[in-house]
Amino acid sequence: MMTVKEISKLTGISVRALHYYDEIGLLKPTDKSEVGYRLYDDKALETLQQILFFREFDIPLKEIKAVVENPNLDKNQILQMQRKMLVSKKERIENLISSIDDILKGENQMNFEIFNRTEIEDMYGSMVANMNDEQKEIFIEHYGSMEEFQKHFMESASSEAAQKNFQKVVEWYGSKESALEASKNPGNSELLPAYQRRIETILIKLAEKKDCDVHSFEVKELIGEYDFVSKQLYQMDDVSKMLLELAKLYQTNQEIQKIQDSIYGEGCTEFFGKAIEAFYQKGTESSMPHI
Fold first, then answer.
1. pLDDT digits (tens, 9 = 90+) for 7-57
2. Does the reported pTM lie above 0.70?
3. Hey, where are the domains in the chain?
4. Which of 92, 100, 139, 258 has the largest count of CB atoms under 10 Å?
């Protein structure tokens, strides 16, 4: 058994943070000494290690708590999840270091490439393979031919702006490999319109709650359904980062507000954004002591 001070010295995490983890039920002590000191065994240390891995990615404590308490996730599943996250972060850091080294040598400017040309060609091929004839006709009418559309797609996807957007997509999916896999396997094309219609229905119901508190149960229930359907639609385990990005646009982009409000009603778009943010807010973590 180890005391709080011993664990703090071993891991570098503050005593205050360990006390806070106990208060919120994230990491309870295994036992207490006769004088009331918190004591932790090896199993508790393993749990703390999992928590610290997730904290490396600034994941909210309530989400970490949900993961470590999930009875359907075993230790290996959690480690595999964390390994993917670490590999993705390692790749991003290595790319940045390489780009900086090139700049210092005077050999290159910052390189924002996330997907190379071969990967973009694969993405295009997968997208076209999942198109029906009606969808292809739309692109042919707009670009003149599928060959011209392919040329436009390759140029656009290779641009710096597109690569920066790809970086966000990679972060949403957790790794570059997962993002590519999702682009190659978009799921049952017959189900996609059904998911989109379901999201439309959710937004209509949400618009009817515009005058409600965004923290109310009925609003959070609808955003919870929005979260669930979005996971199915985009084949993502966690859509919070993506939807929070969308929430920012809903509250700041006047063009999007104009278009959406014309469909759902004046002020609804901003309300959607606030409701999404309220659903994913960190709650008690805002009072979390610095670690």
1. 988 888 889 999 999 999 999 999 998 888 899 998 899 888 888 887 776
2. no
3. 2-69, 71-110, 112-186, 191-281
4. 139
Question: CA-to-CA distance for 21 and 13, rounded, in angstroms?
Answer: 11
Residue 124 pLDDT > 60: yes
pLDDT in tens, 38-52: 999 988 998 888 888
Residue 284 has pLDDT above 50, yes or no: no
Going by C-alpha positions, the residue among 138, 259, 267, 169 that lies closest to residue 209 is: 267
